[in-house]
Amino acid sequence: MYRLLKVILFRIDPEKAHYITMWWFMAALKIPGVKALFKALFQVKHPSLERTVAGMKFSNPVGLAAGFDKNGLFMHAMSVLGFSHIEVGTITPRPQSGNPKPRLFRLIKSRALINRMGFNNDGVEILAERLRKKRPIGLIIGANIGKNKDTPNEEAVNDYLKCFVTLYDLVDYFTVNVSSPNTPGLRSLQEKEPLTRLLSTLQLQNQKALPVFLKIAPDLTLQQLDEIVDIIIETKLTGVIATNTTITRDGLKESKQIVDDIGAGGLSGAPILDMSTSVVRYLSERSAGRFVIIGVGGIEDYSGAKKHLDAGADLVQVYSGFIYTGPALVKRILAGMLTPTKAPD
Ligand SMILES: Cc1cc2nc3c(=O)[nH]c(=O)nc-3n(C[C@H](O)[C@H](O)[C@H](O)COP(=O)(O)O)c2cc1C
Predict the structure, then answer these.
(1) Which of 319, 322, 330 to mutate to test the pocket of ligand 1 (most atoms within 8 A of CB)?
(2) What's the rounded Cα separation, in Å, for the pair 168 and 166?
(3) In whole angstroms, what is the distance from residue 240 CA to residue 138 CA?
(4) In angstroms, what is the span from residue 222 Cα to ligand 1's centroid?
(5) Closest residue (by CA) to atom 23 of ligand 1?
(6) Residue 210: exposed, middle, or buried by beta-carbon count in 10 A (0-12, 13-18, 19+)?
(7) What are the pLDDT digits (tens) for 219-278?
(8) Are 297 and 242 spatial neighbours (Cβ–Cβ below 8 Å)?
(9) How far apart, in whole angstroms, are the C-alpha atoms of residue 90 and residue 127?
């Protein structure tokens, strides 16, 4: 069914296709009986899938990665598809339109995406209002927070703090995003001094000890990863989300010309699975269980999720794999976990 739909959707501009699909999906869910039907089709519940991580009770280990629902518009709809958690955002203090379009590209042969969205979002106040009005029940919601493009890095702490404080009573966990390649200079906040200052400031405000994660790029050197491990432990952060998109262009099946014509942006999807898994494995060995690791990057089936979990991830998240494989992705991963020997992937 999704294969057929994909033929049509993949003829449309990727960003438009995203919103068209979601609006149609949400409209369909309003028809009596459809929500129950989708739940029956796509949700898998089993006690062995449940996980308690950082004090939060997840119905299963698979979540929706940040960027899919930047503004908290699709939380209810996506929960129907079986995700145990949804990370909304990246959200910034003030609304911003992001980079000029087109800014999202498919690399179909590689089952990958390149995006340079640039934190297009409605701003933290509007997201807070949406969460206040209709937060889904029984679903873990994380807020992925960032800074506005025109905020200089020296003042970035204030932007993160504004989002943190505004959403503090409305979400279950926070993710500090310093790893998007599409906000100029953002990734330099991953360096030791600014990162320590940023995380310490947030932790000082963290009265209820809510879980706080750091989302990192897959492009860091081992020395940078070592520094991050030290900082996580020093600032008593809950853990790491590894990884965001990469600025590299390795392992692609499209010609160099096609890839070059797309231009700047972060690469996600199947080609980054090994890269993100390596980061998870390295962090897991270095952390020796002292912090939580959420694995993301290139997971599009049970075997990809298993690679991350075997490498030491406590939970996994997906984005591009969902675009390429469709609404049954979570179900297929969970089915693989329940019957690993018969896994279809
Ligand atoms: C179109 C698009 C937008 C994204 N926006 C965000 C974002 O706002 N914040 C963030 O932390 N990650 C963002 N990401 C990164 C994803 O959350 C994820 O880390 C990355 O895509 C790797 O996972 P995947 O290979 O399953 O897509 C975005 C990814 C895509 C494809």
Answers:
(1) 319
(2) 6
(3) 23
(4) 22
(5) 297
(6) buried
(7) 999 999 999 999 999 999 999 999 999 999 999 999 999 999 999 999 999 999 999 999
(8) yes
(9) 11
